[in-house]
Structure formats: C-alpha cells, structure tokens
Design brief:
heterodimer; A: about 260 residues; alpha/beta; Rossmann fold; 4-stranded antiparallel sheet; 9 helices; about 30% strand; B: about 325 residues; mainly alpha; ABC transporter involved in vitamin B12 uptake, BtuC
Chain lengths: ~260, ~325
C-alpha cells in the first residue's frame, strides 16, 4: 500500500496494436529505477500511461491513492514527467522556463514565493545552468536545452520523477552529472524512473532495472541480474561484453547475435 | 537576454498610448470642433450640435476602437499561445467569417434596412453558429490540428455562402453595401453598438485572461503542460469560446478588421520575454492602440472618401506579414 508508485495490470492499445500488455511493478521511496528496452518496446508509452497521458486500462496509485482520483494539480505535486520531445515553443529565458516547474505549487497570479525561488535555484545549480539563466531557451544547443528541461522537472520537487530518455544527447560529463543528480534525489527518499538506452549508465547508477520488450516486462531486478547475456540477446539481439567494475556493471554491446 | 524591458513599464507605456490615441480619436472628425469645445461638449448635458457629434458619433467610435482592438490583440495572443504558432490569428477558427456571413445575410434579406440592430444580432448569431460547428467538428478536447482544420472548413463554408449572397444579390446597391460592410469600419456606430457588444466582449476577455498560466506551461508542449497541473480540455474550451465571444462581437459591429490580431502579438512578443501569459495584457493594450491609430488615420488620410478601416489595416498588415514570414524563414535557416 505504501509504495511510492504502484503500477498494476497496465494495458494500452493504440489502434489495433497492443503497446503495453499487463505491466505491473512497484517503486519504493529512495529508488532509482532504469527502464530499458529496444526502440518501440513501449517505454515511452509506459511512462505516458502512468501519467494518464494515454488512455489505457489498469491502475496506477501512489501511497495507496489512485492517480486517476487526483486533480491534475495534485498529480503535478506528486509526479513530475519529462517527455522525450524537448519542445520549447517560445523564446523564453532559461530561468522562466525552469520556473514553469513550480506551476502546480503556485496559486493565482502572484509572484513566486521564497520556496519557489529556492527550488528554481537548486535546479539551476544541479544542472549547471548558472551561466545560461538569462539566455533564450531557443538559442541553446540540444544538450543545453535538455539540461534546462531536466531542471524544470527537478524544480517541480515531486516525490516521484519520470523521465523519458533524459540522457540522450548529453555529453559524458553531463550524463554522469545527471545520473548523480538522480542518485541524490533517491538518497533524499524520492523515486526516479528513467528510460535509458545506455546500458552502462543503467548498470552503474540504477538500483534496479526493468527490461521491457514488445509491451511486456521481460525481466526486473538489480542490474547484474537483468543485464545478462541471454536477456540482451533475446531483447536487443546483441552480444555484449559485460564486466563488473568498481563503479558498477559495465555493458558494452559488441555485435549482433 | 533579460525578460524584455520592465513589464510594468511596457504595460504603462501601452496604456498611455491607448489613452492618448483615445483622446485624439475623440478630436478627429469633419465637424472641426476645437479641442476645448469638444471636451466641453462631451461632458456637457446640453444637446447642442457639438454635444451630439461628440456624444453620439465620436465617443462610441473611440470606445468601440478600444474594445475591438483589445479583443483582436488579446485573442490573437491567446490563440498563438495555445496553438504555439506565431501565425495564428483570431479569424482562424472561422468566427470572423461566420459573423460576416450573418451580417451579409442581414443586408441581403433586407432585415438590416428594416431594423438596424438586425445586422449585429445576425452577425453574433453567425459567430455562435461557427463556434458550435467548430466544437462539433473537432470534438471536445480536440487535437490542435483538428481544431485548425475545423476552423478552415467553417471559414471556407462561410466564405462560400457570402459569395453566394453577393452572387444572388437583388441589385447592385445591395452588393455594394455588402462589400463595403465586409471591408470593416467604425463609421457611424452608436452607443447602442457599444452596449450590444460590450457583454460579449467582456465575457470573452474574462475567459481569455484565465488561461495565462496554462499558456505559459504550454510552451513546454501539451504533455508537459498537462502534467504541470493544467486541464488542457478546459484551456481549449476557454480559448475557443473566449475568442468566439469577443471576436464575434467585434466583427458584428465593425466588420472584419484583419491583421491586428496577427501582427500586434508578434511585435510585442520579444518585449515580454516570449511568455504567452504576459503577452496577453500587453497585446490587448497594443491592439487597442493600433486600432485607434488606424481609425484616426482613415479619417485624416481621406476625410472625403470614407476609407475603410479593414482596408488600411490590411494595407499595412500584409507587407508586415510577408516580412514576418521571411524573418521566420531566416531564423529557421
């Protein structure tokens, strides 16, 4: 009952295709979970279905309360979601964009309160954006924009954070900074679910990984138990060099099976 | 980049420009009344010729200029923000075209000659019909592309019906009256027009001003905005109904006045740091100022020829629109 996030029998049908089939899993407070799977496996749809952005059957609850029973604002204070599409429509400043993360916490049209300001500043420093804060978000590079949007989700300060391929397009240093930010959130007792393509990032930073293929969970557990040669061969169709290092599990795909 | 110039200063400047242009509009006209005489006539209770000119001709004209210009600027900003497209404009949803059709039918059937309020009332009915049709075609909580397509369909149909009315018009005078009405003008409007359109315009403003925060969040796309606590279905309903209410009422008293709703938000956007929510009040004031200026210009440029307001805004707006497209193209390159 007291899971940070509990997903039960989620099914999603888009057109005539079953995109998700009977997906169930739990997340505990303080857990950083990687969502893995090949292109088209249903990772993005799973995250959207949890957020109620695509219609499906099943039940998602947080600490025993169904998300479907919450108002959008209440949901916005419990779960943050970072879409894969890094959309920014207007030339607003980086600071303004990050401040949008405070929307579910703010009432009416008043100016931001002290706690809003602090959350925004914390997100800016976590994503190393201090020198970009007054720039227009449309003038940034792809990786910079990605970090700004992550900061927006961090500023939301929710107990649960769902992110869709947050590491894509980041340079190695910012990938590592991102992973360590997620680890820090987890150590504060929050729960992070991130879809990832880089298996080594998942192997080194995640407490647990969920491997999905064709809309169903294939394996779930600690990285070294899930990222096995046979799972990688059946799900991704690759051979991989798997080694345990002092930093965790390293998985380097070396060829097709 | 800072978030534009000081926002309160911008609003104050636009507000001041609107007030000044409002006064200039009151002082502009063929009657040639001096500054102090006209102000005295405006405020006096006596029914002299100057008082009639001021109170019954120029005052409603200036008030309608503010109401209509602000409606066009505000709804243009709201639609651009909602659709996340700088080329959106208030006519996009088919409301202006359908209100025009209602007015054209009033002229065509002779109803407007028999009963002068028949024209704005039928135009309002046209706007109501358009919004119902768009909502019916697109469905509640429709995707934005469906909404745009429904608007295009309604616009084309209303345009076709208007052409049919012109085609079948009983005599050249009726056709000329229809064409002249469609060009858009604030000439010879009375306080009755103000009172008739005011409730709809205020209702439209009230709806549009509720969506500022949601439009800001939509900068991040629909999925992100929905997860930031906004009900997008409600936002869409407010934007569509708010635009229909104020633009429908505006079109019903003044005809179609183009380009203000497209151009004003676009010009002001960089000055408010790009935020749609801040753009809306600025764009409302800017729209009012531009419409007043254009309505003064038509009286000054060709006092004898009854130059139409919509013609002037299109003459200035169309080249600007081209420049806008080239600018967008350069930015994309």
């Amino acid at each position: 009952m007291s899971c940070a996030l509990s997903v039960r029998s989620l099914n999603v049908r888009l057109g005539r295709r079953d995109v998700l089939r009977d997906v169930s899993f739990d997340m505990q407070p303080g857990e950083f979970v990687g969502l893995l799977g090949p292109n088209g496996a249903g990772k993005s749809t799973l995250l959207k279905a949890i957020m109620g952005l695509v219609a499906g059957s099943g039940n998602v609850s947080r600490v025993g309360r169904r998300l479907a029973d919450m108002t959008p604002r209440q949901r916005g204070r419990e779960l943050a979601y970072l879409p894969q599409e890094r959309e920014v429509a207007w030339p607003v400043s980086v600071h303004t964009l990050i401040e949008l993360g405070r929307s579910p916490h703010r009432n009416g049209l008043g100016p931001p309160r002290e706690q809003d300001r602090l959350a925004v500043e914390a997100a800016i420093s976590a994503m190393d954006l201090g020198n970009l804060r007054d720039r227009s978000a449309l003038e940034l590079s792809g990786g910079e924009r990605a970090r700004v949007l992550i900061a927006r989700a961090l500023a939301q300060e929710t107990p649960v954070l769902l992110t869709d391929e947050p590491a894509a397009g980041l340079d190695p240093a910012h990938q590592i900074a991102l992973m360590s930010t997620f680890r820090n959130l987890a150590s504060e007792g929050r729960s992070v679910l991130a879809s990832l393509h880089e298996l080594t990032l998942a192997g080194q930073w995640c407490d647990r990984v969920i491997l999905i293929a064709d809309g169903s969970i294939v394996a779930e557990g600690p990285p070294d138990a899930v990222l096995t040669p046979s799972n990688l061969a059946t799900v991704y169709g690759v051979r991989a060099q798997i080694s345990v290092t002092s930093d965790g599990l390293s998985v380097v795909p070396t060829g097709l099976v | 980049m800072k978030d534009g110039i000081s926002y309160p200063l911008l609003l104050a400047g636009l507000g001041l420009a609107t007030v000044v242009l409002f006064v200039v509009s009151l002082l502009t006209g063929p009657a040639g009344i001096s500054f102090f005489d006209s102000l005295e006539a405006l405020l006096s209770g006596r029914g002299g010729a100057a008082a009639i000119v001021m109170q019954e001709i120029r005052l409603p004209r200036a008030i309608l200029g503010v109401m209509i210009g602000a409606s066009l600027g505000l709804s243009g900003a709201a639609l651009q923000g909602y659709l996340r497209n700088p080329l959106a404009e208030p006519g996009l949803l088919g409301i202006s075209a359908s209100a025009s059709l209602g007015a054209v039918l009033a002229i065509y059937t002779g109803l407007s000659a028999a009963f002068s309020l028949a024209l704005p009332l039928m135009a309002l009915a046209g706007a109501v019909g358009a919004v119902l049709l768009v909502r019916l075609l697109a469905g509640r909580g429709a995707q934005t592309i469906t909404l745009i397509l429904a608007g295009v369909a309604v616009t084309s149909f209303a345009g076709a019906m208007t052409s049919l009315a012109l085609n079948l018009s009983p005599n050249p005078f009726a056709a000329l009256e229809i064409v002249f009405w469609m060009l858009g003008s604030l000439k010879d409007r009375s306080m009755t027009h103000v009172w008739l359109s005011l409730p709809f315009i205020l209702a439209g403003w009230a709806m549009l001003f509720q969506v500022g925060r949601a439009l800001d969040a939509l900068t991040l796309g629909e999925a992100a905005a929905a997860t930031l606590g906004f009900r997008l279905e409600r936002v869409q309903a407010l934007v569509v109904l708010g635009t229909a209410s104020c633009v429908g009422a505006a079109t019903s008293v003044a005809g179609a006045v183009g380009f203000i709703g497209l151009v004003v938000p676009h010009v002001l956007r960089p000055l408010v740091g790009g935020q749609p929510g801040r753009l809306m009040p600025a764009s409302a004031l800017g729209g009012a100022a531009v419409l007043l200026a254009a309505d003064i210009a038509v009286r000054v440029i060709a006092p004898e020829r009854d130059l139409k307001l919509g013609v002037l805004t299109a003459l200035i707006g169309a080249p600007f629109f081209l420049w806008l497209i080239f600018k967008l193209k350069r930015e994309a390159a």
